[in-house]
Specification:
Blueprint: E1 12-21, H1 23-31, E2 48-51, E3 54-61, H2 72-80, E4 84-92, H3 99-106, E5 120-122, E6 125-128, H4 138-148, E7 154-162, E8 169-176, E9 181-186, E10 189-194, H5 205-214, E11 220-223, H6 232-238, E12 241-245, H7 249-254, E13 260-263, H8 267-280, H9 293-304, H10 317-320, E14 336-341, H11 361-367, E15 374-381, H12 386-401, E16 416-424, E17 427-435, H13 438-441
Parallel strand pairs: 6-7, 11-12, 11-14, 12-13, 14-15
Antiparallel strand pairs: 1-3, 1-4, 2-3, 5-6, 7-8, 9-10, 15-17, 16-17
The structure holds S-adenosylmethionine.
EC number: 2.1.1.228
Catalytic activity: guanosine(37) in tRNA + S-adenosyl-L-methionine = N(1)-methylguanosine(37) in tRNA + S-adenosyl-L-homocysteine + H(+)
Pfam families: TRM5-TYW2_MTfase, TYW2_N_2
Length: about 450
Amino acid sequence: MKETLDRSAFRRSIPILAARVLPAQTGLMLKAEAMKRSIMNLPKVRSVVSDPADSNDRLVLLRVQHEADLSPEARTYLEHQNAVLTTYTLELDYDYWTADEILQAILPENLLEGSPTGFAITGHLAHLNLNDEYLPYKYIIGQVVLDKNKRIRTVVNKLNSIDTQFRFFKMELIAGEPNFIVEHHESDCRFTFDFSKVYWNSRLHTEHERLVQQFDPTDVVADVFAGVGPFAVPAAKKGCAVLANDLNPESYKWLVGDLVRASCEDGREFIRKVALGALDNPFPPYTGPKATRSQLKEKRRQQQGPPIASSTFEVTAAATSTTPSNTLQPPSRSRISHFVMNLPDSAITFLDAFRGIFNGEREKQLYLDAPMPMVHCHCFTRELEPELAKKDITERVQDRMGLGRALGGVEEDAVSLHLVRSVAPNKDMYCISFRLPREVAFEAVEA
Ligand SMILES: C[S@@+](CC[C@H](N)C(=O)[O-])C[C@H]1O[C@@H](n2cnc3c(N)ncnc32)[C@H](O)[C@@H]1O
C-alpha cells in the first residue's frame, strides 16, 4: 500500500527567457499580436512579475528558453520596445499541478488509463467509488482530492456493500476529517444528516423536484420511505402538510421542518395508520406562502416608520400570511392527497397495505365523496422497452393490491409512468403514479 504523498517531488525549476520592460509597457505588450504565441500562458502562473533585480521594472515571461526560439515578429516587436532579454527561473510546486497530473505522475503505467479522481460531493464530503486496482493507492488519491478541492474536508471511498435495509453505502475514510455529518443544499432547502448512516442520493434531485411540483400547497402528503426528507422538506417549504416516515432511526432523527410530522416505523404500519392519525391530529390550514425574510423586514419597517397611506404600497399574500385573517379561516387539513413511496427495490410489495385503509367510519366519511389520494411508487424493472416496462410494472401493482381489473379504469386518471434513471445496463428505475382505487381503499378486509 502506497500511503504517503511526497509533495516536494512536484517542485520544478524551469529556466526561461523574460523581457525586462517598464510597468507602463506591459499592458500593450500582453495584447500585441506579434507577441501572442511568445508570452507565457500557463494556468495559475502570472505572465508579468516584478523584476527581482529592480522592483521598478517588470519582467514579461516568455515561453522560450533561448532567444533563437522567438518568432521573427516577436523579436522585432521587443527590439522596438527596447526590451532587454534576461533569464528567469520559473518555480512550480505541488499547488500548480492538477489532481490528474499529480496522479499520472504517481500511479503505475497500467493504471493511467482510467480517472480515479471522479467523485460526487455531498456537503463537505467527497465520495469516490474506486475500482479494486486503485485500492493500493487510495490514501494518496484521497489526499490529492482533498488538497485540490477547497470545499472538501472529508474524502471517503464507497465499499462494495450497501446496507440492505436502510440502503446506505458502507464507506471508509481515505483522507481528511472523520466527520460524516454533512450539511447539503437541495431544492433551496438545507439538509443535515450523517452520510455514513442514512440514504442520500444527489442524482435523484430532479425526481424530488418533479414530484414536489405536482403537490398543491394545500395538500397533505404522506412519505412512506422519507429518508432525511428530500421530498418531505421541500413539500413542507411549499406549504404542504407532510407526514414523513422512515424505519431508519438515523433518518428519522434528522427529519425536521415546520410542517413535517416525522415517524419511525415500518412502511406497512405507517400506511395502515396514517389516515386515522391525520384525522385525530389535523394539520393547521394553509394560509398562503410564507413571507420571505426581506418581505418580513419590509413589513416591520413599514410598521415602525411614519404612517403611509395604504394605497401607496401593495400588500402581497406573502406579506399578509404571518397574520392569519380572522374572518375567513380555511379548514384544517386531515385528508391525504399524495403517498410517496421511494424504496424502488420493494415499494410495490408494500401496496397490499392500502387494502381497506379507509374502512373505518371516520375515514369513510372523509374519503367516500372526495378524490382518492395519488400514489407515487418507485420501482425497478428489467424491461427496457417503455411499453413492456409499463406492462410489467402495472401488472405487479395490480397483483399486489389484489385489483381484479386493470389499473386506471373508470373514473380514474390514466396511470402515468416516469423513467427516473437507468441504474444498470439492464435495469431502469421508474415512478408509477396512479389514483388509489376505491375498491382497494374501501375493501372489507379482516383485521
Ligand atoms: C431509497 S431510500 C429513499 C429516501 C428518500 N425518500 C429519497 O428519495 O432520497 C429508501 C428509504 O426507505 C427506508 N426504509 C427501508 N425499509 C423501510 C421500511 N420497511 N419501512 C420504512 N422505511 C424503510 C430506508 O431507511 C431509506 O431511507
